[in-house]
Design brief:
Rossmann fold; 2 domains; seven-stranded parallel sheet; binds D-malate
């Protein structure tokens, strides 16, 4: 029996596993996977989404696709969920475990991007800057130079790192190299050699002593609201408070209350609950609260690194052990 070329290509494609991509992937890793599998992009609201879910052998998601029991019930063939990124809070790991679905992610893919972003926020908060687009006369020139005087130098501040994981340790190392006194708090005992020059303190001491406090605890559900009214009550009235981890770690109402009452303090918040937030978000329109749209990992390098989750997805589809398995 003769088979046409087109027919054999179709047959080969049909025998390739179907990988459903619901969010952004960098083109190079996507092309790599596309050579091996049928990689199809679709998401909630698309006409073909349910049909693709029903047929998919693997899912690749990023930050906003909720992989829970309801979704997995619609995707009975799925063997592996690839999370392009670090956080696993959008994936019900227990539901995946129960169904025998592997979960893989890229735990260090964007650490450097996040560290650099956190430090850019520190400098934004402490060091006023202005770029001139017109000539200033002598009087305005002098006034402007005075207006842009920083009240504090970074090296005179105590840096508090709440959570000494991959990112917290690197943030701490940069702080120490800038001459800061660096304190940290973590539930786990961090080996002395991995403390990046930082000193362990209790949670309350960390909150009390930090001039700059940055949150890097992980996204386990028990960390929800870990920075609550009681925590805010311990902060310095002129603290710089940074959250580039997850929005749900901070009680937004308590946070709003603190920054309204302490105009000398500054909040730099990159993550929110929900995302995107709506017009009634309690942290909107507070002069000393600065909100960015979850961009800490938004560098080309981090996006590429996260997208290489495709390798582990492919490993699982081939019954090989993945490099970074969460389940
Ligand atoms: C992560 O958890 O890795 C980030 O939130 C990823 C992202 O920015 O999409």
């Amino acid at each position: 029996m003769h088979r046409t070329v087109a027919g054999s290509i179709l047959l080969r494609m049909a025998s390739h596993p179907l990988v459903l991509q619901t969010e952004e992937l960098d083109p190079a890793p996507a092309a790599w996977l596309h050579e091996r599998a049928r990689l199809v992009r679709s998401g909630e609201g698309d006409a073909n989404y349910a049909a693709l879910l029903a047929e998919a052998d693997a899912l690749i998601v990023r930050t906003y696709t909720k992989v829970n029991d309801a979704l997995l019930a619609e995707a009975p063939r799925v063997k592996v969920v690839g999370r392009a990124g670090v956080g696993l809070d959008n994936i019900d790991l227990e539901a995946c475990r129960r169904r025998g679905v592997r979960v893989v992610h890229t735990p260090d893919a964007n650490s450097q991007a996040v560290v650099e972003f956190v430090w850019s926020l520190v400098f934004d908060a402490l060091r006023p800057r202005l770029f001139l687009s017109e000539a200033l006369d002598k009087k305005r020139w002098g006034e402007t130079r005075k207006e842009l005087r920083a009240r504090r130098q970074v090296c005179d501040c105590v840096l508090g790192v709440f959570g000494m994981g991959r990112i917290g340790r690197r943030v701490a190392r940069v702080g120490a190299s800038l001459g800061m006194r660096v304190l940290y708090h973590d539930l786990l005992d961090v080996p002395v050699g991995e403390r990046s020059g930082a000193t362990p303190v209790s949670r309350d001491e960390l909150l009390r002593q930090s001039d700059i406090l940055t949150i890097h605890v992980d996204d386990r559900p028990s960390n929800r609201g870990i920075v609550n009214t009681q925590a805010f009550a311990l902060l310095k009235p002129d603290v710089v408070f940074i959250n580039a981890a997850r929005g749900f770690l901070v009680d937004a109402a308590a946070c709003a209350d603190f920054f309204i009452k302490h105009p000398g303090a500054t909040a730099m918040l990159d993550v929110h609950e929900p995302e995107p937030f709506g017009p009634t978000y309690p942290l909107l329109d507070i002069k000393n609260v600065h909100l960015s749209p979850h961009i800490a990992a938004a560098t080309d390098a981090a996006q590429v690194n996260m997208s290489w989750v495709v390798r582990d997805v492919w490993r699982v589809l081939n019954n090989e052990e993945p490099q970074f398995a969460a389940v």
